[in-house]
Specification:
Helix content is 70%, strand content 0%. It is mostly helical. The longest helix is centred in the last third of the chain and has 30 residues, at 249-278.
């Protein structure tokens, strides 16, 4: 998976409506970024997974479905915890630099005791392939990477969740492979494949964009031989997320930002009307229209007007 292409593929998941302008812009940016990277820096994959053996989807169908179920269940917590940490961070009455200080302080002990969970995580995925880990340590790595991603993104510091999603999927796939291998139901050659397939499944479940996940990971493997296993794992994980009421993470973040923008605009309108109300510049008829207008805003569940205002009390946010 090349860096420039990896950044252009998820654009389909970040836009609610498909537009030819978005496609042309994304394709142009990908072509230009690929050209610059190839001419000046050299093309190198983000993950160094080596040769990935092909898997017979028919003979390992139940293993692939089980992997998709496991990844789909594990991915359910991602969106909920992400919104939870964002809301908790928003309610803290501290400056922005103070909110960014918490992940910085957490990263100090992690840098000494668990440095694998810091950064984007591509070296961690490479180490999963080259050096096998105990299943307990894999669980610790997954929980550490998961909660540190939540703390870092929830703090409001500019960053992303795209690469951490892939890393969490790789860890989930390695945990599944280690557990299945300990029970003797998984061949050792399937471990690397489970890591790759779980990345696509985790991405598909969280973003709810299985086609993007399949193409992304298929490009990483560089072979069409993994297309069918990728589709099985991604679709099963997607169905699990869909049946449990999961929503696309980028759409959730977009809806949250739009709600805050609308809330801010209505708040400014209401404050301006409140100032004019306090100056007694309204006749009885205008006052009645004003109250009805504010009541309609309140009924839209924007929570910018409190009921006490309609009974003559002061407006408080």
């Amino acid at each position: 998976m090349h860096r420039s292409r990896a950044q252009s593929l998820p654009s389909k998941s970040w836009h609610i409506r498909f537009s030819p302008y978005v496609l042309i812009g994304a394709m142009s940016a990908a072509i230009m970024a690929t050209t610059v990277t190839q001419q000046f820096f050299g093309m190198a994959p983000v993950f160094h997974l080596g040769e990935i053996p092909a898997v017979d989807a028919g003979a390992n169908f139940f293993l692939l479905v089980s992997l998709g179920l496991f990844v789909g269940v594990v991915s359910l917590a991602f969106n909920h915890f992400l919104i939870f940490f964002l809301e908790r961070n928003r309610r803290f009455s501290v400056p922005a630099w103070g909110k960014a200080l918490l992940p910085l302080l957490i990263s100090v002990p992690l840098g000494f005791f668990l440095p694998e969970v810091l950064g984007g995580g591509s070296p961690l995925v490479d180490s999963l392939v080259t050096a096998p880990h105990a299943i307990l340590f894999l669980v610790v790595l997954f929980l550490g990477k998961f909660f540190f991603t939540m703390f870092a993104f929830g703090s409001g510091v500019p960053g992303g969740i795209f690469l951490p999603m892939l890393v969490l999927g790789a860890l989930a796939g390695n945990i599944f492979a280690a557990g299945a291998e300990s029970f003797g139901v998984l061949p050792a050659s399937f471990a690397v494949c489970a890591i790759v397939y779980a990345m696509a499944g985790y991405f598909s479940a969280v973003v709810k964009s299985p086609i993007t996940g399949v193409i992304l990971i298929m490009e990483m493997t560089g072979s069409f031989a993994h297309l069918l296993p990728l589709m099985i794992v991604s679709m099963v994980a997607y169905i699990v997320a869909d049946l449990t009421g999961g929503k696309p993470v980028y759409e959730m973040l977009l809806a949250r930002n739009i709600a805050f923008a609308e809330k801010g605009s209505h708040r400014s309108i209401v404050l301006a009307l409140q100032k004019r109300w306090e100056r007694r510049k309204y006749t009885n008829r205008k006052a009645s229209l004003l109250r009805r207008h504010l009541y309609r805003i309140y009924k839209k569940r924007l929570h910018v007007v409190k009921p006490c205002f309609f009974y003559g009390a002061d407006y408080r946010t």
